[in-house]
Specification:
The protein has 375 residues and is an alpha/beta fold. It is 42% helix and 15% strand. The chain has 16 helices and 13 strands. The longest helix has 15 residues.
Length: 375
């Protein structure tokens, strides 16, 4: 069987979210013993991939399996986007050649009106539908007039939802038939569950996410400002790339003593941060899944999160929940985990056990079974 896989998210210079999901899933998928009998066509497109592209060479070295074939196009992104959005061109055949099924790891520009090949689509969340105010006008127009997510979901032969919560959103907002949706949880990287060689807990609270309204850093910053009145040596370390409407949040970070903003960090630095953190706080109010709190749990850091969207589903009873819209509630939760040793130990133990529920190998096996059902 020939399986086409859209790998454009692997071209992102600062991997997060979808690109992490794609990379980890593909690594696990192509290493499955049962994958050896299939052929995979990995699609990339960028004008910069012409000739001896270092990125292309790096990806080909990262995925050296002999049953992986690369379909690389060099159409300028804007031209490709416009052609896909308005004319549903180029075709699936132009992108992948002759394939039996196509897998897309996220809603992206794609010939949705080309129905000759079944498509399996992963939907991470519908934040762009439920919290439009958290997106720039440009992003809202992009989803509404260019990406056509509702049409895309309807056209797909099958949908992978990364959580029951995302499945529920698809059913309620898009009226997608439940039987069309398979819930397949992402996994947790092995590096996040093995001991870190220089692990030494320090007096800092950690939070990792893109700086944007949905991640709710403004509430965390005000809660930390209150916490510092009681714990004047406490630090708050924040890591994550710039997002839309981040200027006010970045300015507030500079105004509050003890706040350290690192910007985007790579995996090695992220592991180092988890290894030294005393508490991990995830104040986001909408997530399709939520990798960072799960990664923190795998590294033995107790987690504070909100009872919102998929987080209770993913974290279960292994996290301390707070009202992330209430500054005082968040302050109390941080204070409890910093001062109550038995509470910390309880959530560290529960967190480590919870993180073991999520495996990329299991995710890959379930995904491959779904893809090969179209033979």
């Amino acid at each position: 069987m020939r399986i086409g896989i859209d790998c454009r998210s692997l071209q992102e210079p600062q991997p997060s979210g979808v690109s992490v999901y794609t990379r980890e899933l593909l690594h696990a998928l192509v290493q499955l013993p049962e994958a050896a009998q299939h052929e995979f066509v990995f699609f990339l497109n960028a004008y910069s991939l012409r000739g001896g592209s270092p990125l292309l060479a790096s990806l080909q070295a990262e995925f050296p399996q002999s049953n992986i074939h690369w379909s690389v196009r060099n159409v300028p992104s804007k031209c490709f986007t416009l052609a896909q959005s308005f004319f549903s061109r180029p075709s699936i055949a132009w992108m992948f050649g002759n394939v039996d099924v196509v897998f897309l790891s996220n809603i992206d520009f794609f010939p949705v009106r080309d129905t000759r090949v079944p498509v399996v689509l992963t939907v991470h969340d519908l934040s762009f539908e439920k919290y439009r105010e958290c997106f720039s006008l440009k992003s809202r127009l992009r989803y509404r007039y260019f990406l056509h997510p509702r049409q895309f979901v309807k056209r797909a032969a099958a949908i992978i939802a990364v959580s029951q919560h995302t499945k529920s959103d698809l059913v309620s907002l898009y009226k997608t038939p439940e039987e069309k949706i398979s819930v397949i949880y992402p996994g947790l990287r092995e590096a996040m569950v093995r001991p870190y060689k220089n692990e030494q807990r320090q007096k800092y609270i950690l939070s990792i996410a893109t700086i944007e309204p949905r991640k709710n850093f403004d509430t965390l910053l005000e809660a930390f400002a209150l916490l510092r009145q009681k714990h004047p040596v406490m630090r708050l370390v924040i890591a994550g790339g710039f997002g839309w409407k981040s200027a006010h949040t970045l300015r507030r970070m500079k105004e509050i003593p003890g706040v350290e903003y690192l910007g985007y960090v790579d995996d090695a630095k992220k592991e180092q941060l988890y290894a030294g953190a005393s508490v991990f706080v995830y104040p986001s109010f909408y997530e399709g899944f939520g990798f960072p709190p799960l990664e923190a749990q795998g590294r033995g850091v107790p987690v504070i999160a909100g009872l919102h969207s998929s987080l209770p589903e993913v974290l279960g009873e292994s996290a301390l929940y707070a009202d992330v819209f209430d500054v005082h509630s968040l302050t109390r939760a941080m204070d409890h985990l910093m001062t109550d040793h038995s509470l910390r130990t309880n959530y560290i133990t529960k967190g480590k056990e919870n993180s073991k529920r999520f495996s990329w190998q299991q995710s890959a096996q379930q995904t491959l079974e779904l893809l090969t059902s179209y033979i």
